[in-house]
């Protein structure tokens, strides 16, 4: 796996796009569907904050999780990875869907979710079979693939550790969409192997007690910040007035 992954960034221009339809991209992927919007600007701001953190510490592999399902972690992961790819077209950017229970990266991007991380970790295919290039961008995507019987066991395997080692060597930036933290052990297991973890929180929905529980479950992982998702522009007077102008 290592030698093949090391060459992954070099063959991206030749990878089939495998995109179902440009119209199939989720409208919440605002870095594509509404790049001039306030929401898209917030994702770019998030990316540059990570860049500033990288000046202080190595942070090649960044994971995103949430306390519970439905908080927008996948949409945030996709927007952040696309913001990274657009900001630095010379870098090799990879987005990995590690939510093997309910992978949503492929459908969010309008891509076909055939083989993916699950099949790669099971030894059923080669990395060349699962890495997709999104449209004409330099963004590489590895979808989740089919749901395995024992997702936690698969993510805790030696193959997963080998995979993470390989992508560190083959890509400049890697963004990993993890499962929600509280319902499953997956995020806690993988969180410790990441350089940084972002907690996505749905505004006015997720109780602070639940967020605290999720943070406690990730104890030991490099939690670098939280992303407040779904906040209304009206909640920020300055931004509201600025956008009106």
Please give a structural write-up.
With 245 residues, the protein is α/β, with parallel strands linked by helices. It has one domain: 3-Layer(aba) Sandwich (Rossmann fold), CATH 3.40.50.300. Helices cover 41% and strands 15% of the residues. It is built from 13 helices and 7 strands. Strands 3-4-2-5-1-6-7 form a 7-stranded mixed beta sheet, with helices on both faces. A hairpin with a 5-residue loop joins β3 and β4. α4 crosses α5. It is globular, with a radius of gyration of 17 Å. The C terminus is likely disordered. This is CpsD/CapB family tyrosine-protein kinase. InterPro entries: AAA_dom (IPR025669), Bact_polysacc_biosynth/exp (IPR050445), P-loop_NTPase (IPR027417), Wzc-like_C (IPR005702). It comes from Corallococcus exercitus.
Topology record:
Layout: H1 2-6, H2 8-11, H3 30-33, H4 38-54, E1 61-66, H5 73-87, E2 93-97, H6 105-109, H7 117-121, H8 127-130, E3 132-133, E4 139-142, H9 151-155, H10 158-170, E5 173-177, H11 186-191, E6 196-202, H12 208-217, E7 223-229, H13 237-244
Parallel strand pairs: 1-5, 1-6, 2-4, 2-5, 6-7
Antiparallel strand pairs: 3-4
Helix pairs in contact: 4-5
Fraction of residues in H or I helices: 40-55%
Oligomer: single chain
Identify low-pLDDT runs.
13-17, 235-245
Gross morphology = globular
CATH superfamily: P-loop containing nucleotide triphosphate hydrolases
**How big is the Rg?**
17 Å
Instruction: Report the CATH topology name.
Output: Rossmann fold
Counting DSSP E segments of at least 2 residues, the number of strands comes to: 7
**Number of spatially distinct domains:** 1
Question: How much of the residues is beta strand, in percent?
Answer: 5-15%
Structural class: alpha/beta
One letter per element, helices H and strands E, the order comes to HHHHEHEHHHEEHHEHEHEH
List the total number of helices. 13
User: Mind summarizing the main beta sheet?
Assistant: 7 strands, mixed
CATH class designation: Alpha Beta
CATH architectural group: 3-Layer(aba) Sandwich
- Termini gap: 52 Å
